[in-house]
Each structure stands twice: as C-alpha cells, then as structure tokens.
Design brief:
Elements (H helix, E strand, L loop, with lengths): L2 H30 L5 E7 L18 H8 L2 E3 L2 E2 L5 H10 L3 H4 L15 H7 L3 E6 L12 E5 L9 E4 L4 E2 L4 H16 L6 E6 L38 H4 L23 H21 L3 H36 L6 E7 L18 H4 L3 E4 L8 E3 L3 E2 L3 H8 L14 H4 L13 E5 L11 E5 L3 E6 L4 E6 L17 H17 L12
Parallel strand pairs: 1-8, 1-9, 2-11, 3-12, 4-5, 4-8
Antiparallel strand pairs: 2-10, 5-6, 6-7, 9-10, 13-14, 14-15, 15-16
Helix pairs in contact: 6-9
Length: about 500
C-alpha cells in the first residue's frame, strides 16, 4: 500500500469521524432545545368562580375542571377588562383594551385584520383551531380550522359556521362542541406540529337549558341563598338601584322554563316536558307571591345553571382524558377560564357587566406539567388581557409591543406570587349603555383592597374598602376617613388611563 493511498485513506476516515461528531452534536442540541408546548385554551361563557369546586365555598362539584387546579395553579384574583361576552373575547385575542381593539360592546363587530395571538402562533409553526362559541360577528381569522356557533347559538341542535359553509347538528350543544374538538384532535391535527385549540362553550349562558340526562338533577336539593340576595342597594351610586337584572323582576318565562321549549326534536321535547311539566304544575298550584316567589325563581335558576355546568365539566373531562390517552398531557399548556364572572343571586342579580367582584372577577386555572407546581394558588392581580402574552411566551414567540398585558409565566413558573415589578392595580371600563340590563357606563381602578369606580354619565363615584366591606354594600366615597385613600386611587386611575391610552369617554358620553 503506497504512502499516498494511506494518507488519503486516513484523511477520509478523519473527515468521516468529524462529520459524525458534528451530526451527533447537532442532534444533542436539538434534544436540549425546549419543545413548543401544545396549547388548549378552554373558555366557558358566564361560568362564575362560585360554581367551580376548586374555589372555596363553591355551590357544586366540578371534578374534571378541578383536575387543572390540583395538577396546576388556581388564580384567586383574576379579573377582566370589560365584563361582557364579545368584548372579553376580543381582548383575549388581541391583548388590547376594548377602546383599542374596537370591540367595546356586544353591538360591535370584530376587525379580523388585527394582530392576534393565533396569527402569531401560526407563524411560529402552530396548527390552530377554534371550536364553539365565537360571538364576534366577523368570521375567525388566524385559524387553520374553525367551527363556531352563529351568535349566541342554541343549547340544542346547533348550526355551526365553518369555512366550508354552515353545518347543522342534532344533539346537545355542549356535547357537540366537544365532539367537533375531539374530531379535530384525532383526525385533522398534524401530529408533527404543536397545536393551539381554542375550545369555547356556550354554556352556562342564559337561558340555562340543561342536557336531557340532567333535567332532574338537583330536584331534591335546596341551595342556600347568597348573603346579599335581599340587597336594597342603599349607600351606593344610583346605578345599582336602577339596573334591570334582578331575579325578582327581570327573569322571564323562558328563563324560568314556564314557556314551552322551542327548537327541540320530538324525542328531546318528550324528555323536557316529562321533567318540567310536573314541576311547573306544582309551582302553579302553589300560587307563590312576594319573597316566596323570588325564592322559587332563584332555585329554578341556580339548578338549571348548575345542570349546564355539569355538562361543561363532563366534556372538559373528555378532552383531558384524550390528552392523557394520547400521551399529550406532559407537553400541553391547558388554560380554563370564563369570559367574565357572573351573579348567582348575589345582590339579587343574574348576569354580569359591573365592576363589582362577582362579575369583575373570573376563574382561571392553568396546568402545564414541568412548569407549574401542582396544587399551587396565586393571589397575584392578573387579567384576561394577560392570556395571549402568556401563550405566546410559553411558545417562545416574541410579544408585540402593541399588546397591553403581561405574560403570567413568572407567576406560573414560580410560587404563584407576583414578581416585584408586577402591576399594583387593575383598570376596568364597561361601555354598553343604553343597553341590556341598564348597567351604566363606568370605569375604575382596583388595587386588591380599594376599588374606585366612576359612573361618568351619571356624574357619580363609588369607593369600596373590600377588607372591611367584602360584599361592596357601602361606598365610602367622600368619607373623611378615606380622604387619603381616595386621593391615591384617583391618581392611580389617572395613571392607568394614560398608560392604557384610554381617553374615553368623549364629551358626548358625559351627557
């Protein structure tokens, strides 16, 4: 063998070994690179934190939703920027307050050309889908797949809008939304890509129609009345007394299931009539009046509401079980929330809209194995405007400067407490007046204890000390003992309005 041949043979061997080493190093680097998590964003409509058993004092049991708290983090002070369905959804999509994203009330139409977190996740390699409640008028953008309800959608036999046209389904809407979501996960999802699934329920929105198998659940249960159910609305601004959202006066025959149900198949109607017929007959024979009538309405309302939530909980369990069965749980960030809080008889009310706690505060449960310590509880002041930034940060996507929220990752990956530089107070603004339920327009600031609210069309203010008055029954605005606090809260309110670029209301709004 010539020396020349040996030289080239040695050179070839050395080159091959170096190439293999480079490939091996690259493979090692790939395994250490963080893998983008799948993201499952679950939102119910009008699901009060008082109706999730992971929260203290809940009325019911939600074992599947509770799994997210046991295996992740429960947020006890999560709030919304605008407590009403469509605007809350627009805020979450854009990470911007209502006055900037253009969707201020349920009469608005969402501008789908805006920058949204699903569009950014798409660019980052995610496969995206939205199934269920949409309620933004315009068609979804930023989603590879969409199947959404038209408007509010019915509880039974829904029509779903899709990119291929409307599709009609027979059955209970909560089940159908889950069927479509699971079909997408099983049949349409690309397993080689991370996914974003926005899975949103109509339930438990008004008028609270239970599924066939739950029509008689709770018939033998008497739920306790809220402490403030008989509120007389004294010691507050005039809006609280002049609203139109009481169980006593506002609930109608359809809400109370005293009218015949519409849109049901013969089989569904048979089950419905068999359940409500005898109960309605007993009610008519009782001939109730006064407080006894209000108490009956409350029991009818709360039982139907909780029956709807039972179906949501069952269906959330179906999706969580799928993640477990397919080995997806460990690399999936799961978020459960509502578009806002809801009144379950507190202050004698149903619905939402106010900056008072029951409607301002919303549930938030987050599970992300390996990142969130199971069973942790956070008392940080967080908002729904933080949700898109959190999902983007988890995916390793840069958060646009135009988004106004904060990523919750420092809280989620820590002990649940807010970092030192976290926001000291929250800003809120509600716009839909004149409108349903006659809740006046208002904006305000909340620092975790004190809450300052400006009803700018009325020229009235409220200030609450939630440590001394947790049910917000007595405004201390103008009280000399709170003069210093009041001045501080006004300053914070001015600072937040400037920070979030909210120069509304315009002069005409004050008339």
């Amino acid at each position: 063998m010539s020396s020349t041949f040996r030289f080239f043979a040695s050179l070839f061997l050395l080159t091959t070994l170096l190439s293999l080493q480079v490939i091996s190093s690259a493979q090692a680097a790939d395994t250490t690179k963080p893998k983008q998590p799948n993201i499952l964003f679950i939102m119910a409509d009008d699901h009060a934190y008082q109706a999730i058993s992971a929260y203290p004092g809940a009325l019911n049991q939600t074992p599947n939703i509770d799994r997210l708290a046991k295996e992740g983090m429960r947020f006890d002070r999560c709030y919304v920027t605008n407590s009403i369905c469509g605007p809350a959804r627009a805020v979450i999509l854009t990470g911007k307050y209502s006055h900037l994203n253009g969707f201020i009330d349920n009469r608005s139409k969402f501008d789908g050309s805006q920058l949204t977190y699903p569009k950014l996740l798409q660019k980052a390699g995610y496969q995206t889908a939205v199934v269920g409640k949409w309620h933004l008028v315009s068609n979804p953008t930023g989603f590879d797949f969409w199947s959404v309800l038209r408007g509010q959608g019915p509880y039974y036999n829904p029509q779903m809008l899709t990119s291929e046209g409307p599709k009609k389904y027979e059955g209970y809407t909560t089940d159908i939304i889950t069927d479509i979501a699971l079909d997408w996960l099983k049949e349409k999802r690309d397993p080689n890509k991370p996914f974003l699934l926005v899975y949103q329920h109509k339930a438990p929105h008004r008028n609270w129609m239970p599924s066939p198998k739950r029509l008689n659940k709770y018939d033998d249960v008497e739920f306790p009345e809220p402490e403030t159910m008989w509120d007389d609305y004294s010691n507050r601004a005039s809006g609280a007394k002049n609203q139109d959202m009481t169980i006593a006066k506002t609930m109608n025959q359809n809400d109370l299931k005293l009218n015949a149900a519409r849109g049901l198949t013969p089989k569904q109607k048979e089950a419905w009539d068999a359940a409500y017929g005898p109960k309605n007959k007993a009610f008519e024979e009782a001939n109730l009046t006064g407080k006894d009538l209000v108490r009956w309405k409350y029991q009818r309302y709360i039982k139907d509401y909780l029956r709807c939530i039972d179906s949501v909980d069952e269906n959330v369990g179906r999706v969580l079980d799928y993640l477990d069965d397919e080995g997806l749980t460990d690399n999936t960030l799961v978020i459960y929330t509502s578009d806002q809080g809801f009144y379950l008889g507190e202050h004698g009310w149903f619905d939402k809209r106010w900056m008072y706690e029951e409607s301002f505060r919303t549930p938030l449960l987050v599970r992300w194995p390996g990142h969130v310590q199971p069973g942790t509880v956070s008392d940080a002041l967080v908002m729904n405007i933080d949700f898109p930034e959190t999902m983007l940060a988890a995916a390793g996507v840069k958060i646009p400067a135009e988004m106004q929220g904060e990523s919750l990752l420092p809280i989620l990956e820590g002990d649940g407490h807010a970092p030192k530089n976290w926001r000291p107070a929250l800003y809120y603004h509600y716009y839909e007046f004149p409108g349903a339920h006659s809740v006046p327009r208002h904006y305000g600031v909340f620092d975790g204890r004190y809450k300052l609210i400006n009803y700018y069309q009325l020229g009235e203010w409220e200030l609450f000390d939630l440590k001394e008055d947790p049910h917000e029954l007595n405004s201390v605005y103008g009280h000399p003992d709170y003069a210093e606090v009041q001045t501080k809260m006004h300053q914070q309110l001015d600072e937040l309005r400037k920070k979030y670029q909210d120069d509304t209301p315009k002069p005409k709004d004050k008339q």
